[in-house]
C-alpha cells in the first residue's frame, strides 16, 4: 500500500461505528457540563438571545420564513445582509419546538460543536498523527471553552465551525484518495458553510484552482478534470449565483451578502480612518455614519452600494497602511484571548473586560494594559490564555516550516492546509485596531492544531544536523482511516 504521508507515522487504528458514537457522546457530555456551569453563572435564555446584537439579525428572517413565507428583515424588507443558512436552522427549531426553540437550538449547537471536535480528531487520524499527539491535540479541541461558549448564544459560529471542519476533512481525503464522492462532499460542505458565514465566499475559487493544479500535475485524464469542474459548478457557483440573483430581484443588490459592504465601510475604512486621523476606532466609526460622501451616496443608491462606494477611496488611497494594519490584525488574532468573551457573562467583570478588550483591539498588549491585567484575577487568567495561544502560534509556525522542509505530508495537503490557515487569518483580521472578527479565530485554532499534528509526522532523525531532508520511501499495510491512501 502506497502512503503519501510521512512513512514513519504509525497507522491509526480504524474506529468502529460504536467507538465513534461513544467518542461523540463523550465530547457532547463535556459541552453539556460546561453549559450547566455557565447557566449557574447567569447564562439564561435572555442572555443567549440578547447579549450579542447579531442575534436579532438572525432571528428576524427566521421568524419571517414561518409567518410570511419570505426571507425578510425586522423592518419587513427583503433580507440581504444575512444569508439563509443559520436562519433556516432557527426557523426549524421554532417550527418543531415552539416556545422551547432556544433551548433546542443551543442543544443542537452544542452537538455541532462536539461534532466539529470529533471531525478534527478524525482528520488527525487520517493524517497519520501519532496517538499520543492526537490525544493531546484532541483534548485541547474538546476543552476549548471559547468554542463551547459561542454555542450558548444565537450565533452562527457552531454551525459554521462544524461545516468547515467537515469540508477540511473531505478536502484532505479528496487530495489523498482522489475519489469522486470526496470532491462532491468537499464542494457541498464548503457551499453550505458559505451560506452560513459569507466570509467563505472567495475560498471555493482558491480551492478549485488548487485542486485543478494538483490534478494536472498528477497527470489526471481530461474526463476526470471535467467531472471535477462540473461538480464544482453545480455545487458552488450555481447556488451562490442563484442567491445573488435573488438579492438583485428582491432588493436591487447584486451580491451574495451585504454584510461584506457594511464591514468594508464601518470596519475596514473606519480602521484606516482612525489611524490617519489619530482617533480611536469607535470615534472613526461614528464619524463615518455622518460622512458627507456617504450621505450623498445614500440619496441615489441602496445602503450596501453606498457603503462600498464610500469605502473604496479611503482604502485605495492608503493601501500600504491598510495592508500593514491587516498584517497586525492577523498577528493579534492568533493570540486573541477567549477570556475577553468568556468573562462577559460575569456582571461585575463586564465593564472591566470590555474596556480591556477595547484597549487590546486598539493598541495591542500595551504596558498599560499589561499592568491592568496583572491587577485583576480575570486579567491574570487572560494573560495565561494569551501565553498559551502564543505557544500554540509558535508551535504552528515551527510545524509549518519543518513540514515543508522535511516533507511531512504530501505537497498538495501541505499547501491546502497552509492556504486555509492564511485565508482564515485574512478574513478574521481587520484594521479596526487588531482584529475585526475575533470570533472567527475558532476555525483558526483548529487549523493551528492540525498543523501541530502534521509537525509530529517529522521523524526525529530528520531534525538532526546532516540528516537528509527527504524521507526514505517505505510502505505500511492496511488503510488507517477513511482518509487513506489508495493501493
Task: Tell me what you see in this structure.
The chain has 487 residues and is mostly helical. The model is unreliable at 1-11 and 468-482 (pLDDT under 50). The chain has helices at residues 17-41, 45-50, 54-67, 85-97, 101-127, 131-142, 145-150, 157-177, 180-196, 203-217, 222-235, 237-251, 259-277, 281-289, 292-300, 303-316, 319-334, 339-342, 347-363, 367-373, 377-406, 411-428, 441-455, 460-463. Among the domains are: 270-317, no CATH class; 318-457, no CATH class. The protein has 24 helices and no strands. Helix 5 (101-127) runs parallel beside helix 23 and helix 10 runs antiparallel to helix 22 (411-428).
Topology:
Layout: H1 17-41, H2 45-50, H3 54-67, H4 85-97, H5 101-127, H6 131-142, H7 145-150, H8 157-177, H9 180-196, H10 203-217, H11 222-235, H12 237-251, H13 259-277, H14 281-289, H15 292-300, H16 303-316, H17 319-334, H18 339-342, H19 347-363, H20 367-373, H21 377-406, H22 411-428, H23 441-455, H24 460-463
Helix pairs in contact: 1-5, 3-4, 4-5, 5-6, 5-8, 5-23, 6-23, 8-9, 8-22, 9-11, 10-11, 10-22, 13-14, 13-16, 15-16, 21-23, 22-23
Amino acid at each position: 500500500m502506497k502512503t503519501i504521508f510521512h512513512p514513519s507515522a504509525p497507522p491509526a487504528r480504524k474506529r468502529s461505528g460504536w467507538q465513534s458514537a461513544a467518542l461523540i457522546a463523550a465530547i457532547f457530555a463535556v459541552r453539556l457540563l460546561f453549559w450547566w456551569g455557565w447557566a449557574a453563572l447567569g447564562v439564561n435564555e435572555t442572555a443567549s438571545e440578547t447579549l450579542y446584537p447579531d442575534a436579532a439579525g438572525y432571528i428576524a428572517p427566521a421568524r419571517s420564513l414561518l409567518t410570511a413565507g419570505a426571507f425578510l428583515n425586522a423592518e419587513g424588507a427583503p433580507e440581504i445582509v444575512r444569508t439563509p443558512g443559520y436562519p433556516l436552522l432557527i426557523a426549524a427549531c421554532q417550527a418543531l419546538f415552539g416556545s422551547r426553540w432556544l433551548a433546542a437550538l443551543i442543544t443542537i449547537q452544542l452537538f455541532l460543536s462536539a461534532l466539529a471536535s470529533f471531525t478534527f480528531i478524525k482528520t488527525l487520524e487520517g493524517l497519520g498523527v501519532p496517538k499520543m499527539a492526537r490525544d493531546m491535540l484532541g483534548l485541547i479541541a474538546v476543552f476549548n471553552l471559547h468554542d463551547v461558549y459561542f454555542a450558548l448564544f444565537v450565533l452562527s459560529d457552531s454551525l459554521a465551525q462544524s461545516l468547515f471542519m467537515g469540508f477540511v476533512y473531505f478536502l484532505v481525503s479528496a487530495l489523498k484518495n482522489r475519489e469522486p464522492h470526496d470532491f462532491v462532499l468537499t464542494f457541498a460542505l464548503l457551499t453550505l458553510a458559505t451560506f452560513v458565514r459569507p466570509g467563505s465566499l472567495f475560498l471555493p475559487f482558491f480551492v478549485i484552482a488548487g485542486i485543478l493544479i494538483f490534478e494536472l500535475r498528477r497527470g489526471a485524464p481530461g474526463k476526470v478534470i471535467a467531472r471535477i469542474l462540473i461538480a464544482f459548478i453545480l455545487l458552488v457557483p450555481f447556488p451562490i449565483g442563484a442567491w445573488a440573483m435573488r438579492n438583485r430581484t428582491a432588493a436591487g443588490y447584486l451580491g451574495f451578502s451585504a454584510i461584506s459592504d457594511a464591514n468594508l465601510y464601518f470596519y475596514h475604512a473606519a480602521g484606516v480612518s482612525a489611524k490617519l486621523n489619530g482617533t480611536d476606532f469607535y470615534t472613526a466609526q461614528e464619524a463615518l455614519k455622518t460622512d458627507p460622501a456617504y450621505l450623498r451616496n445614500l440619496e441615489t443608491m441602496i445602503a450596501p452600494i453606498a457603503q462600498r462606494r464610500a469605502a473604496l477611496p479611503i482604502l485605495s488611497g492608503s493601501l500600504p497602511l491598510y495592508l500593514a494594519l491587516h498584517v497586525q490584525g492577523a498577528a493579534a488574532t492568533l493570540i486573541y484571548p477567549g477570556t475577553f468573551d468568556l468573562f462577559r457573562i460575569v456582571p461585575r467583570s463586564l465593564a472591566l473586560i470590555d474596556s480591556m478588550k477595547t484597549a487590546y483591539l486598539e493598541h495591542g498588549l500595551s504596558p498599560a494594559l499589561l499592568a491592568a491585567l496583572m491587577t485583576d484575577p480575570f486579567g491574570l487568567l487572560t494573560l495565561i490564555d494569551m501565553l498559551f495561544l502564543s505557544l500554540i502560534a509558535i508551535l504552528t509556525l515551527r510545524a509549518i516550516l519543518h513540514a515543508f522542509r522535511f516533507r511531512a505530508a504530501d505537497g498538495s495537503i501541505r499547501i491546502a492546509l497552509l492556504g486555509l490557515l492564511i485565508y482564515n487569518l485574512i478574513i478574521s483580521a481587520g484594521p479596526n485596531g487588531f482584529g475585526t472578527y475575533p470570533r472567527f479565530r475558532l476555525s483558526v485554532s483548529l487549523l493551528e492544531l492540525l498543523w501541530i499534528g502534521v509537525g509530529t509526522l517529522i521523524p526525529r532523525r530528520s531534525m538532526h544536523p546532516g540528516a537528509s531532508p527527504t524521507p526514505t520511501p517505505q510502505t505500511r499495510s492496511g488503510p488507517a482511516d477513511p482518509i487513506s491512501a489508495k493501493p
